[in-house]
Amino acid sequence: MAQNSQRKIFAGNIDWITVLLWLSLCIIGWFNIHAAVFDPEHPSILSMSTNYGKQFMFIITAIILAIAMMIIDSKFYSSSAPVFYGITLLLLVAVLVVGRNVGGNQAWIPIGSFRLQPSEFAKLASTLMLAQFLSANSNKNPTKKVLFIGVLILLIPIALIMKQPDTGSALAFFSLTFVFYREGYVSGRFMILGGLAIVLFVLCLLFVQWHIIVVLAVIAGIAIWQFRKSRKAITATLILFGAASLYVLSVDFAYNHILQAHQRNRIDVMLGKINDPRGEGYNLNQSKIAIGSGRIFGKGYLQGTQTKYDFVPEQSTDFIFCTIGEEWGFVGSMVIIGLYLTLLLRIINIAERQRSAFARIYAYGVASILFFHFFINIGMTIGIVPVIGIPLPFISYGGSSLWSFTMLLFIMIKFDSNRKGIV
């Protein structure tokens, strides 16, 4: 009887639309990797001596992992979250000792011909751990203590990943701020202030800092005049002006002493402060050329000249969207973006219909991480965000990223398929 019930849950309550979206993105990624690194000497898309052949094996393995995620009991994930989290922290420490340095980042542990990237799995483990911790306190009023510990859960892997250094992967953890917002630990005002802080940071890089402080002083003066009858409002305005001024003055120090030289150069290229088409701006320049040359309908499969002649570095990984833009054009690019947006909306819908706090929090974590990767990866190929080197979920080449994103997604699908039984 129990076996029949489990079979019904596994077959009947799965969100097949989400599964279909995942599989579609995986297959699209496989064909675009084939186009990005096509080798005439190995024309078969199944050739195991090529990246596209290896990606096929990664997809088959990902399907096996997806099935495994669905078979495992839902309660196992919540009870084992601290174990997963601890193991990934150990792997993040291990990669600093025995890891292989590729492109200036010591982020991979060599296992035969395969390279394991622990930072990808750290996102999964940290999301599970955060969901487990916050759900354990979900029946209480949100407190600063819980918020502090929740932030600490994320800061530990961030610090270890920054030691590699892998800024892109580390920044992905900050997307989980939306989880704290959804659960009431941070207010909408905090999210708005965070957005304004980013805008102010960019303005400080474009204009003289003292000019910005003068403008802030004028805005503060107008606000004080408007709220002159409220001592509380005046005090809050003065505190906000003081904090903003200190922030503006600290930007220069952070920019010149915390960010690395190549990171500063990439930001300067994006903001148009320097023109370096043969140096730091080469990737972005070639990326724009490739995407723009695709026009409306693209040049056709395996017909991309920018792709064929290897003008764009890392085109099967970080810059895979260039291949899509060149060979599929604007229409094909919008189809991919539409698939991602549909998947994200589906995940949010799944999150809101969960009956357990753990499943809801975890699902919002999944949505946050996938959105960050989707937005930043595509954004950096068209020049609206700096190039920080993160994969496009389910599409970029790589076993670690595909497996971790697949596990991340299918654990959520498992929760949803058995949401009445999750505690």
Descriptive overview:
With 423 residues, this protein is mainly alpha-helical. The chain folds into two domains: 2-195 and 261-417, no CATH class; 207-257. It contains 17 helices and three strands. A three-stranded antiparallel beta sheet has the order 1-2-3, with helices on one face. α2 (16-36) runs antiparallel to α3, α5 (118-136) runs antiparallel to α6 (144-162) and α13 packs across α15. The radius of gyration is 23 Å and the shape is globular.
Strand content: under 5%
Parts with pLDDT < 50 across at least 5 consecutive residues: none
Order of H and E elements: HHHHEEEHHHHHHHHHHHHH
Helix content range: over 70%
- Helical region count? 17
Shape: globular
- Number of structurally distinct domains: 2
- The structure class reads mainly alpha
Largest sheet: 3 strands, antiparallel
Spatial strand order of the main sheet: 1-2-3
* Radius of gyration based on Cα positions: 23 Å
- Beta-strand segment tally: 3
Brief rundown of the structure:
The protein is 70% helix and 3% strand. It is mostly helical and 423 residues long.
